[in-house]
C-alpha cells in the first residue's frame, strides 16, 4: 500500500469546505490513516518547502501555510499518490480541470487550497514531518471488496 500526504491550506478552513474536500478523497476509495488540525510553524514550513528555498515564490508559500490552521492528512491505497494528484488537479488554477479540487475551489496559485505529495518518496517524507508513527492508524477496510 502506498501512502500520500495531503494538506488543506488555510483557505479551505476559511471557506468551510474541509468536509467536501475530504469527501472527494474518501469517495475515491482511499483510506484515511492520519488526520490533524494544526498550525504550521515557520521551521516546519521551511522543512516542508525545503526544495523551493531561493525560488521567488518560496516566502509566499511559507507565509500562506503559516497564516492560519491547516488540516494535514495521510492517505493510503493502491497507487495512492497518482490517484490523489488526479483528484487534486494541476497546480496552476487555469490549468486545473473542472471537477478537480483545484479546478473547483482555487483561483490563485499563491493561495492554492491543497498540497499533495508528488511521489511516494515525498509522501513518506512529508508524512514523517507531520505525524509520529503512533498517530498513523492502520485499520481494516471492510468495504474493500466493493471498491
From TrEMBL:
It is found in: Cytoplasm. GO terms for molecular function: ATP binding; metal ion binding; nucleoside diphosphate kinase activity. One of its GO terms (cellular component) is cytoplasm. Its cofactor is Mg(2+). Residues 1-138 form the Nucleoside diphosphate kinase-like domain. Keywords: ATP-binding, Cytoplasm, Kinase, Magnesium, Metal-binding, Nucleotide metabolism, Nucleotide-binding, Phosphoprotein, Transferase. Its EC number is 2.7.4.6. The active site is at residue 115. It holds the Pfam family NDK. It comes from the Bacteria. ATP binds at residues 9, 57, 85, 91, 102, 112. It catalyses: dZDP + ATP = dZTP + ADP; a 2'-deoxyribonucleoside 5'-diphosphate + ATP = a 2'-deoxyribonucleoside 5'-triphosphate + ADP; a ribonucleoside 5'-diphosphate + ATP = a ribonucleoside 5'-triphosphate + ADP. One of its GO terms (biological process) is CTP biosynthetic process. Belongs to the NDK family. Homotetramer. (Microbial infection) Catalyzes the phosphorylation of dZDP to dZTP, when the bacterium is infected by a phage that produces the substrate for the synthesis of dZTP (2- amino-2'-deoxyadenosine 5'-triphosphate), which is then used by the phage as a DNA polymerase substrate. Major role in the synthesis of nucleoside triphosphates other than ATP. The ATP gamma phosphate is transferred to the NDP beta phosphate via a ping-pong mechanism, using a phosphorylated active-site intermediate. This is Nucleoside diphosphate kinase. It comes from Treponema brennaborense (strain DSM 12168 / CIP 105900 / DD5/3). The lineage of its organism: Bacteria, Pseudomonadati, Spirochaetota, Spirochaetia, Spirochaetales.
Amino acid at each position: 500500500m502506498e501512502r500520500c500526504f495531503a494538506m488543506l491550506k488555510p483557505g479551505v478552513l476559511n471557506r468551510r469546505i474541509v468536509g467536501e474536500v475530504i469527501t472527494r478523497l474518501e469517495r475515491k476509495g482511499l483510506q484515511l490513516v492520519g488526520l490533524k488540525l494544526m498550525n504550521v510553524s515557520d521551521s516546519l514550513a521551511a522543512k516542508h518547502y525545503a526544495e523551493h528555498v531561493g525560488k521567488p515564490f518560496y516566502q509566499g508559500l511559507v507565509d500562506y501555510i503559516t497564516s492560519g490552521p491547516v488540516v494535514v492528512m495521510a492517505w493510503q491505497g493502491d497507487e495512492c499518490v497518482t490517484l490523489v494528484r488526479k483528484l487534486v488537479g494541476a497546480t496552476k488554477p487555469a490549468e486545473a480541470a473542472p471537477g478537480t479540487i483545484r479546478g473547483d475551489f482555487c483561483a490563485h496559485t499563491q493561495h492554492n487550497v491543497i498540497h499533495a505529495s508528488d511521489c511516494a518518496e515525498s509522501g513518506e517524507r512529508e508524512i514523517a514531518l507531520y505525524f509520529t508513527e503512533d498517530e498513523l492508524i492502520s485499520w481494516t477496510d471492510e468495504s474493500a471488496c466493493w471498491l
